[in-house]
Write a structure and sequence with these properties.
118 residues; Arsenate reductase; EC 1.20.4.1; Arsenate_reductase-like; 4 helices; oxidoreductase; Arsenate_reductase; 4 strands; elongated; Glutaredoxin
Length: 118
Amino acid sequence: MDITIYHNPACGTSRNTLAMIRAAGFEPRIVEYLKTPPTRDELRTMIEAAGLTVRGALREKEALFRELGLDAADVNDDALLDAMLAHPVLINRPFVVAPGGTRLCRPAELVKEIVPGT
């Protein structure tokens, strides 16, 4: 099964999601997105496939979110995507792409919707 996790090893939720995938018998492709961010098209596709808005995929807890003024209601999706690509720490995690769909696995248990046996 082809599974990709956009992973941050420093994040407990991301580590738990990865552990659940492995416990189900799968070894996913791991993309440490802070080192290797997705392209704009990949990011937009993941967000749409997960049924989220661009704003819904932002990590609002990061101080940079407010520092860049991204909390303003009039910031459009293109500007939000630009910020996420320039500062990958703003991308919420972990995104998992599997044959069963794409999810932002917060909480980690959401991976159960797309990876059998998790």
